[in-house]
Write a structure and sequence with these properties.
Layout: H1 6-10, E1 20-24, H2 27-37, E2 42-49, E3 61-67, E4 71-76, H3 77-80, H4 84-90, E5 96-99, H5 102-109, E6 120-122, H6 137-145, H7 165-186
Parallel strand pairs: 1-4, 2-5, 5-6
Antiparallel strand pairs: 2-3, 3-4
Amino acid sequence: MKSISKEEIATYNIEKFTGNIFVVDNPEKADKAVEYLSGFGSLGFDTETRPSFKKGSVNKVALIQLATEKRCYLFRLNKIGSSSSLIRLLSDANIKKIGLSLKDDFNNLSRRMSYTPQGFIDIQGIVSKYNIAELSLQKIYAILFQKRISKSQQLSNWDAEQLSDAQKRYAALDAWACLKIYEKLCLTTSLSEF
C-alpha cells in the first residue's frame, strides 16, 4: 500500500487552481450556477464551516464548493440559505459529486438544509482499491500528482462578510482536487502508473 510522509509532501510544489471562481451569494446566482453545473457528469465537491473553538459548539456549513475542470462555484449558504436548485443538484443521482469524508459533510449539511444526497462518491471509499493507504486529500493528491495542497486557510472565518482571495482559491482547490483525483483513478489500472 502506498503512503507518503508530511516531510516528502513538503518538498513538492504547491498546486493551484487556475480556473475561474464564482461566488454564489444570492438565489438568482445559485439558479444560474446550478443550470451550468447540471450539464456535467462529474463535479468536485467540498464544504467549509467556520471553526468553533468552544467545546460542544458547532457552526453551520457556510460554503459548498462545486467544481468542474475549469470553474468552481462557491455557494455561500450563510447568505443564500437553502437553495431549491442546489438541493435538486445535490439530490440528482445522475450527476456524480466527488468528495472526501462525505459522511461529515452530510451530517453538517443536514443542520442547514433538508435534502437526500444522491450521486456522491467518497474518495476515501475507493483509494484502497488503487493500493493507496492514505485517506487525507493532501496525501492522496501528493501521491497521484506529486504536488502539495496548502491547508493554510482551513481554519479561517468562512462566515465572513466577504471571502478573501486566499479563501476563494483554497476552497476552489479542494473541490477541484477531488475531481482530479477521481478522474486520475478512473484512468488508472495499477499504482505503477503513478
